[in-house]
Design brief:
The structure is a single chain. The chain contains one helix and 32 strands. By secondary structure, the protein is mainly beta. A four-stranded antiparallel β-sheet has the order 1-32-31-30, with no helix packed on it. Strands 2-3-4-5 form a four-stranded antiparallel β-sheet, with no helix packed on it. A hairpin with a 4-residue loop joins β15 and β16.
């Protein structure tokens, strides 16, 4: 009998699919590291694609067997992760830009360019609630327990009740809140258009501290322990020491002065990000020293995802690139024929990314 039980346990363990983490928000997690838990094949193949008919700037979220993303025509779309078949559409009635969904077990949250935050049921796309800010939303929502955090161009970071959409608090900055907030513990971090990096307490919306970045920032911050990393519109990349509350190092490539819109990804002791000078860079997280560069054919506003020693990143040249994290060598590329500014999501060894001609691709 014991042998039979052991045999059954062994059979179940072999037959059961390996668990895989979802990609429930922009950059994959609260710290905005862009790091995946599974690795795509060395030579990915196109598994399916879904055509929406309008631009996709929103990055996909994947949760519980579904893929969610926003479309320029205002639709929030849910697809079957395995097949790419449509599950449902929700019409916001307004243009959706870069805001990317955050997904809980019950709801999908996203912002539109009319300044409205939408919460819709994950299972069928029915509206749960909406909340109106006073200007457009390009920030992606972040769900922390029962609170939705999201920035607006009306200069505020908002905290909304996840179930009801009621305002918990709002914090006013001195410029548009374009970036997605990063979260660590009870603090939300925003790098802003007011040239300030702010730490805001999620519990009460009060500012814990601020660090002068000295530069307009469109990228979202990457948080790694007591460090924050992000590129700026002053053509540099900053590392901040959050304990000392000061700039740790500043990287600037003087030969080509272009802004950074791409949000950085974490790859061990490296941070990797794209630039509007067409270059993807790897910088040492401790010193800011450049490890390598890779030059695309057009600007790189897409934010990289890291999996299995590779960086996956799109470019406005229409290509999805796979680069070796250690060397920057190109391992693979796929030409979609249309600009890519959305960022990849990686789940269960699959890569999902949208394009400006309205196609969401799934590779694996």
């Amino acid at each position: 009998m014991l042998k039979l039980i052991l045999a059954l346990i062994t059979f179940v363990s072999v037959q059961a699919p390996a668990p895989s983490a979802d990609w429930r928000q922009f950059r994959g997690n609260h710290r905005l590291t862009g790091v995946a838990t599974t690795t795509p094949p060395a030579t990915p193949k196109l598994l399916w694609k879904y055509e929406t008919g309008d631009v996709i700037e929103s990055s996909a979220a994947v949760a519980d067997g579904s893929v969610y993303f926003g479309v320029g025509n205002g639709d929030v779309v849910a697809l079957d992760f395995a097949t790419g078949k449509l599950k449902w559409k929700y019409a916001t009635g307004n243009y959706i830009g870069e805001s990317s969904p955050a997904v809980s077990a019950e709801a999908v949250y996203i912002g539109d360019l009319n300044g409205i935050v939408h919460a819709v049921a994950a299972k069928d796309g029915k509206r749960l609630w909406t909340f109106k800010t006073d200007s457009e939303i390009k920030s992606s929502p972040v769900l922390v327990n029962d609170v939705v955090l999201i920035g607006s161009y009306d200069s505020h970071l908002y905290a909304l009740d996840a179930k009801t959409g009621k305002l918990r608090w709002k914090f006013q900055t001195e410029g548009q809140v374009h970036a997605t907030p990063a979260v660590l513990g009870d603090l939300a971090f925003i790098a802003g258009c007011d040239e300030m990096f702010r730490a805001i307490r999620i519990s009460d919306g009060k500012q814990a501290y601020v660090i002068a970045a000295g530069a307009y920032t469109g990228a979202s911050p990457l948080i790694d322990g007591d460090r924050a990393y992000f590129g700026t519109f002053s053509n540099d990349v900053l590392a901040l020491d959050l304990k000392a509350r000061k700039i740790l190092w500043r990287y600037n490539y003087k030969e080509r002065q272009f802004p950074y819109y791409s949000s950085a990804a974490l790859a061990g002791n490296r941070i990797i990000l794209g630039g509007r000078d067409k270059i993807v860079r790897s910088l040492d997280s401790a010193t800011g020293k450049q490890h390598w560069t890779f030059e695309a054919r057009a600007r790189v506003d897409s934010s990289p995802a890291i999996a299995g020693g590779n960086a996956y990143i799109g470019s406005s040249d229409g290509r999805l690139y796979v680069l070796d994290v250690a060397t920057g060598q190109k391992k693979w590329e796929f030409d979609t024929g249309s600009s890519i500014t959305a960022s990849p999501a990686i789940v269960s060894g699959r890569v999902l990314i949208g394009t400006h001609d309205g196609v969401l691709y799934c590779f694996g």
